[in-house]
């Protein structure tokens, strides 16, 4: 049994389990007031909003949160791997979406075997060779993070 706020069971060198205290990081409070439409709202954790992802204090706090999560969930690692393997085993190695017609072309996306992201492509007719529009796997190789909300 694990109590995240109290600690976690960890094996000792002689394979006995004992409770080891693992305390979550506590985000410090920094006073901040939002004012909108004449209303004021206190938000002591506003400093954690870092849209530019450049603040070293935010990064350090998030790394501490990740380390805490890994420590608390370490004992579930074999189960996590089993679940992942089971879910991944149910997927087809290559997956192709249903094409849809838009402005004179058929559009679809596909996942290649072993690829993590889709390749978006279009075809003038369903028997034609597809024209790749965006290979998200190539984009991912060029940058550690990719994101898009809408793409046309």
Describe the 3D structure.
This protein is α+β, with helices and mostly antiparallel strands. The protein has 3 helices and 9 strands; from the N terminus they run E-E-E-E-H-H-E-E-E-E-E-H. The chain has 2 domains: 8-74, no CATH class; 95-142, no CATH class. It has helices spanning 56-73, 77-89, 136-142, and strands at 8-11, 17-20, 33-36, 39-42, 95-96, 100-102, 105-111, 119-123, 131-135. A hairpin with a 2-residue loop joins strand 6 (100-102) and strand 7 (105-111). It is flat and about 60 Å long.
Write a concise keyword list for the protein shown above:
alpha+beta; 3 helices; disordered N terminus; 2 domains; five-stranded antiparallel β-sheet
Distance between the termini: 50 Å
Share of helix among residues?
25-40%
Number of domains: 2
Quote the average pLDDT: 86
Order of helices and strands: EEEEHHEEEEEH
- Mass-distribution shape: flat
Can you tell me the residue ranges where pLDDT is under 50 for at least 5 consecutive residues?
Answer: 1-5
Number of helices: 3
Compute the gyration radius: what is it? 24 Å
Give me the secondary-structure category.
alpha+beta
Instruction: Please tally the β strands and state the result.
Output: 9
Strand content: 25-35%
How would you sum up the major sheet?
Answer: 5 strands, antiparallel
